[in-house]
Structures are given as C-alpha cells and as structure tokens.
Amino acid sequence: MQVLQVQLEVGPDPAEVGRARRWARSRLAGSGIEDDEPLAETLILLISELVTNAVVHTGCPAVLRMLFGGAGAGASGAAGTVRVEVADASDCPPLQRHAEGDDTGGRGLELVDGLADRWGWLPEGAGKQIWCEVDRGGPVRVRETPSVVAGQGGEVCEPPSCLFTNLA
Fold it and tell me: Could you tell me the end-to-end alpha-carbon distance of the chain, in angstroms, rounded to an integer?
C-alpha cells in the first residue's frame, strides 16, 4: 500500500500557524478527509498545537509533514493512519505542562495527548521532530487516561513512567 507524504515549511512567525492550518485543510480534503468530518477537525487542532509550539517555543522555522496511507504510514503501522510530524531546529525536548484554570498557555501537549492515538518525539538532524498519529477507521475520542507515548528512541511506553526520560 502506498503512503502519501506532503510537507510545508513554516516560518518563525506565529501568523504562520493560520497558513499551516489552511494548507493542512486542503491536503486533508485531497486525501478524502472532508472539512466537516470530526477527524478533520481533530487533525487540524493537532496540527495547530504542534506548529504553534514549534514556532513560539523555538523562534525558528519548522517543517510540517502529513503522511497518509496504509501500513508503514506511522510508527504503529496501522492501515489508514494519518501521521503528523513537526520538525524544528531546537534540540530541547518537549515538556508536557499541566495548565491551571487561568493560565493562558500550557495546554498544547495535553490536547495532543488527549486527541491523538499515539504521539512522541525523536531527534531529527540538529533538532527534533514531534509526531502524532490518528487512526482513520476508529471513532474520534478524547481520552480520560494518558495515551501510549513513544520516547526519544521510539520505544513505546505508558505514561508517566517513561515520558521523555531518555533525554541524553
């Protein structure tokens, strides 16, 4: 089964997040995921959060990639998985924060954890790649318990036991 990969270079300006969302919507439609589907809304939210994190926290350009297809599309190898990857030039690992009610930030990776079927990060060049996967065939859901996370080396683990513990 073939895998389609598309990518967009994103500038280091927060205004670029809107451009990334518009670009992603058009690519989702081209892959057969319509605007009004819950899956599309979930993927756009995930993309928005990951691109925002890359641009705001690094101040550097980033690369957004989406992979559509069957087996081999993502780390899980699940047929019909959509994988989103955002690579940036920072080698600092992502930190999942827990925002309080009045906080204006700190919810991005909590949203990713709740909406994606799998997510993690790994080194890429001099920087890093943060990725998430959503299975096309399953219902879109918000998890009440933490998801399975892949650490830096790609190992799969149950949080919080090995969330980003292999930082060397």
Answer: 36
